[in-house]
Amino acid sequence: MTAARQTWQVTLRGIRVLLRNPAYLGITLTQPIIWLLLFGALFKAITKIPGFHGGSYINFLTPGIVVMLAVSSAGWSGMGFIEDMAAGVLERELVSPVWRGALNAGTVLYSALVVSLQSVLIVLLALALGANYVGGVGGVLLLILVAALLAAAFSSLSNGVAMLARQREALIGAVSFVLLPLTFLSSALMQQSLVPAWIRAVARFNPVNWAVEAGRSAAMAHIDWGLVLSRLGLLVALVLVCAALATRAFSAYQRSL
Amino acid sequence: MTAAIEAIDLKKTYPPGVAALDGLSMSVATGTIFGLLGPNGAGKSTTVRVLSTLTRPDSGSARVAGIDVLADPIGVRRAIGVVGQKHGGAPEATGRENLISHGEFYGISGRELRGRVERSLERFGLSDAADRPVKTYSGGMQRRLDIAMGLLHRPAVLFLDEPTTGLDPEARVGMWREIERLAAEEQMTILITTHYMDEADRLAARLAIVDRGRIVVEGTAAELKSALEGDRIEIALVDGDGAGAQLALERVEDVGEVSLTAGMLYARARDGGAAIPAVLAALESHGVRVASVTMARPSLDDVYLRHAGRAFQEADSQQEEVAP
Fold it and tell me: B312 vs chain A: nearest CA distance in angstroms?
């Protein structure tokens, strides 16, 4: 109970930063729109590739954009901790008896909420552009859920990197290094049967691909429950492992003080 | 009286081999203000970090409010308040929001928390600014909020790490009054680190000078000053036999450490006021004409320079501690 209250206080802080910073709020809300329009325009011809059977370009791309944005959005989570280190906020928190897990879980929850909001925007815009959600509202909710879970995992990872590296540059480097390879090594933007075999092999172990596969199956097709549930299970496990690692990174940071 | 803070032989070395604490031991009686003085990098802040469970010592032990910092850090955290050198408030949140979330971190909630927050805002003169973001606060207001947060859970021991650095003189004096009030009315034990001798002199019942990771001298301000053995007497000579005057002065009872520099005689006397008539008589009988006599009681600056002065120029040129 106390842990939940403390977690919520940390989440609340993130929400306040977002709502009280118009520029930040504006970017957070327009980014999904720009991504969907840009990637949509860029990959419009994808349906003409021989062997493509993913339906309309907007149907194929929407889950991919939702998932890609989740990684990109949550990847910056750790930046807040780096600012808090410099400002003295983190020090004040660490000399309090607050549960360390709450400091991580609060920002993870915040990332998941923001990504859910961004995903809703993408889904609605795609609908306006002609997307056909075969899976119905339930399927769309599952797509948003996998995006939120993926965001939760990457938010923890980002927090962990921040606590260990303690430098903006290191975190910026890590996010830029990871985002595009993980996207390209998945079916986010390209149908798996059309990519080289080695990418298909690697993609099986890529959490981004788990999320894309599950989200696409749930929202855009007749749902394959076996696929969706197995990927959901993997994502939930990943969220827990990443959260445990990030919480431990707080102890590592404290040892170095 | 029992000790609220007890540290025994604390050692801590930061890579690549900088000894921040080198066998530091100290004891602070319950309900008193204890001052830690010393140059940058002497180990003051590391001492506070260890005692407040922010970091662990390589060796040694410490108890705060009777709780072992290594065995039960969470117990220590519940019992202490810490006001660090930097402001700890979240800049985008309001003062009230900061106090609320800080209280939740200590497991206080609901009506109890709201009541404490209101009283605390009022007490620290922040009621009018309670719903403004902290980033719009002046330095003095942020400091008051820091202290309000540090006290919200009613700690038994309060750590103040350079609490008035960067404050204007008026805000400094206000802060001093608040600290004195805490110790007097709430029987709180306060450990304060500072660069300012006047601050230590005014606030601390006992103080210690830290240098190179250990305590070099400890006592009340009066004890430390009287340990310097006497007041300083400065005599400006009009002209004449300086060397002879020096000899004459050395024969005066209770006067010592006589030196002559550029027409100025310096001496030290256990009781300067009582020694001056004898000093003047001795000089007059020797035919030395005196332009003026000045007597200075030893200040805490003298104490500080005596004990930490050797290191303080070189230490000041290094960086503060090993900032994380």
Answer: 24
Domain with CATH 3.40.50.300 in chain B: 3-225
B77-109, pLDDT tens digit by residue? 999 999 988 888 999 999 999 999 999 999 999
> How high is the pLDDT of residue B163?
87
Q: Mean pLDDT over residues A72-95, rounded?
A: 94
Secondary structure letter of residue A166 according to DSSP: -
Chain B hits for A16, Cβ within 8 Å: 92-93, 97
Mean pLDDT estimate for chain A: 93
Residues contacting B14, CB < 8 A, separation 6+: B20, B322
**Domain covering B3-225, topology:** Rossmann fold (3.40.50)
CATH of domain B229-296: 3.30.70.100
Residue indicated by tokens 């993130």 = A14
Question: For residue B313, what pLDDT band results from cuts at 50, 70 and 90?
Answer: very low
The structural domains of chain A, with segments of one domain joined by +, span 2-255
CA distance B41 to chain A (A): 14
Q: What is the pTM of this model?
A: 0.84
User: Is A87 an interface residue toward B (CB < 8 Å)?
Assistant: yes
Under a CB-based contact definition with an 8 Å cutoff, are residues B172 and A59 in contact? Answer: no
Q: According to CATH, where is 3.30.70.100 located in chain B?
A: 229-296
Backbone angles phi, psi at A84, to 5 degrees: -65, -30
- CB distance B77–A97 less than 8 Å? yes
Q: Which of A75, A103, A99 is nearest to A89 (CA)?
A: A103
